[in-house]
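User: Sequence in, structure out. Go.
Assistant: Echoing your sequence, followed by the structure tokens.
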Amino acid sequence: MGNFVKIFDTTLRDGEQAPGCSMNEEEKVKVALQLEKLGVDVIEAGFPIASEGDFNSVKLIAEQIKDCEVAGLSRANIKDIDRAWEAIKNAKNPRIHTFIATSDIHLKYKLKKTKDEVLEIIGQSVRHASKYTSNVEFSCEDATRSDLDFLCSAISVAIQSGATTINIPDTVGYTVPSEFSKIIKYIKNGTEEIDKIILSVHCHNDLGLAVANSLTAIHEGVRQIECTINGLGERAGNASLEEIVMALKVRNDLNPYITGINTKNIYPCSKLVSTVTGVNVQPNKAIVGANAFAHEAGIHQDGVLKQRNTYEIMEASEVGIPSNHIVLGKHSGRHAFKDRLNDFGYKLSEDKFEIAFVKFKELCDKKKYVFDEDIEALINEEFVRSGDFYKLNSLACSSGTDEKPTAKLSLNIDGQIIVVEESGDGPIDSVFQSICKAAGITPKLDSYNVASVTGGMDAQAEVSVIIKEDNHTARGKGSSTDVIVASAKAFINALNNLRWRKLHPKIVSPKGI
């Protein structure tokens, strides 16, 4: 038995079955190509009998994927199997994956069949699939709640009928690692010719144990793991591909197994799946969550800055994330704050650093997130900057259903009053056009967001913008009960920050400032 573990990805089949996660043909092909780049061994492209759209997407994937096996799922009946084969027959390495339930509860209430009838169906179905291809996988649905002797009988029939991969699904996420270990051992000891096939598991996460159960199965000789990107799937989801792969890689001392996954493509694949399904990855999700390599606690930041592996067991770059992230907030300590100032080129004397740190903490109590621009503004205003270069004097706008939006504003630019009037696609655009005309620069507006600071009809609006020019990026914020005025303030604030970024990319004073 080798130590190579095949990764069977079912994001496009089981993952897509999660409510609201359906993908169109173009999206499924895009994800399949990314999975191929990731290096999965098998892509379960879909359930061809389910719909014409699913059939077409499986067919397209089968025709385009060259470096992975492409599987089509089918129930254990002739019609399903024929349809699955029609969809995958042009694949370079096609696989038919057929299944039927084996637990007493499913036999009694869902299938309404006896055990002998189910064994007959298994034999007929696998033999029929084997006429098309030697690459046939059979799954015992709800295996972990099945009578183990009957489970062994079902597997034996499947093997004798031509199955080359046998899958043991924990369909409802019911088992626990110690029990699952016993189930796998029982199957291996009680099934003839089990050593001639690849044993697989497919674990659901209803009790949060899908990854733990999958790792346990590997230790018991299972050499294929069925999983999904981001743990997507029915109910609480499936075993997470990224967690299984990185558990094997990071703790290879205790898990001496390998996969063919290019881990640097994990994060890009995660982002793509999140984008096409519209399902955001929870921030604290292992491996790919936004906070997986982020540190805000002062003690953690101090440790990571001194030696990364004090609080990180893997490098962010290993999974395709450019770097870890020191999040500055109310839990941050002096070390992290000073390190960020050093990154900006600010060298403060000790007494001024303490003043800046106190003001930083005051800012953290007011803001949920503290951005680099906030810190630069704090230092500039406290120690360097003696007032804004651009200041809003007055603003008037006209707009309506039959009137071209126009803005007239008066801008104080370094003490000189500039008055301009400009039109745009709307009142906000006309304001921004006017400001740019007065300032004589045209940065790209990269982001524009409006939030209500208070409730009610008199709510104060807070506008935040991000602008870019050349290689410089700057944020700006403005507040007012008038959203147009708030927008003007935010844009002008961003222009001031942009100007300081361009003029002072590094402010270095060895004697302190």
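User: And one key feature?
Assistant: The two ends are 67 Å apart (CA to CA).
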